[in-house]
Structures are given as C-alpha cells and as structure tokens.
Design brief:
This protein is mainly α and 166 residues long. It starts with a helix and ends in a 7-residue tail after the last helix.
Length: 166
C-alpha cells in the first residue's frame, strides 16, 4: 500500500490520534503539512487555519487520501512514528536484529530480506504491547521503506487477520 492508500484504509480515529499528537507535540510539522497541502491545492493557509480543528482534520485527511499528497503523507507517518512511537520502533528493530540508535532509527542499510520466524515473533510482541491498529500502520509504513516491500512482511500483512487498519 502507498501512503495515500493507508490514509484511506486506516481507521479515521487513528489518523486523528496522529494529528492530535502533532498539534500537541510538534505544531510546526502540523502547520507545515497544512501549508504544503494548501499550496498544492492552490489555497491559502489562512483559509484552512480559520476552520475548526475537526474541520481541519477532515480536510487534511481527505487531502492525504489523494495520490498528490503521497510524499507529504508518507513523511507525516514517518515523523509520527520516529518522534511519537520510538519505543515501538526500537522493540521491532530489536526483535528483527536490525541495528538502530536506541530510538528505532535504523543505523546503516535496511536488510534485503526479513527472516519470517523473527518477523512472526516481532509482530506478536508488537501486538501484545501496543494498539494493534498502530502496530499494523507502523508495519505498513515500514514496508514502504523498501521498494516493493519485503516479501515476508507483505505476506504477513496480507495473511495475518490481526493486522487490520480498521
């Protein structure tokens, strides 16, 4: 799935949770996302900012569901996971034996393949410790980091009934 497809498939409450996190913890990223999308739609940022927060969220979500917003959409997801969900990322990297900085940021190159047995154990850990929708969204965003994804991870996402976004 591409980023715009993730926004279409994900539970809107999960995306609202992400937007809330940005408004509370990194308003600059939230404002920048609004400005970038407004500019791409030939709108003024001030017009969007005059809307109520729920209306801003609805507009932003609808915009992120468009192919045009694929890059900014993926960036927002990555930023949310990298800044707001570091413990989960680190736990996944540890389980997969992927070197990282202790906060889930991979050091060096991503592996060419993922071991299916390690992946099964890592997914089980994430689902036991975190909201399954958040874990599923993370795994889908992680899969975007390799062109075409990883075969083992894609199979897991396609076949594990616990890994649903809604």
């Amino acid at each position: 799935m591409k980023a715009y497809e993730l926004y279409s498939a994900a539970d809107p409450a999960l995306i609202t949770q992400m937007f809330d996190w940005f408004r509370q913890n990194d308003r600059n990223v939230y404002r920048s996302a609004l400005a970038t999308i407004a500019q791409s739609r030939k709108m003024r940022l001030a017009f969007i900012q005059k809307k109520s927060v729920p209306d801003q969220y609805a507009w932003l979500l609808k915009s992120l569901q468009s192919k045009m917003a694929g890059v900014i959409g993926e960036h927002l997801l990555q930023a949310w996971f990298m800044a707001g969900n570091q413990e989960m990322l680190a736990k996944f990297c540890d389980a997969m034996e992927i070197p990282h900085d202790g906060k889930g940021s991979v050091e060096g190159e991503l592996p060419e393949t993922l071991d299916a047995a390690k992946l099964d154990a890592a997914v089980d850990q994430l689902l036991a410790a975190y909201d399954p929708k958040v874990a599923t969204l993370y795994l889908r965003v992680f899969n975007l980091q390799n062109p075409g994804g990883w075969e083992a991870l894609q199979a897991k996402l396609d076949n594990d009934s616990r890994l649903v976004l809604v």
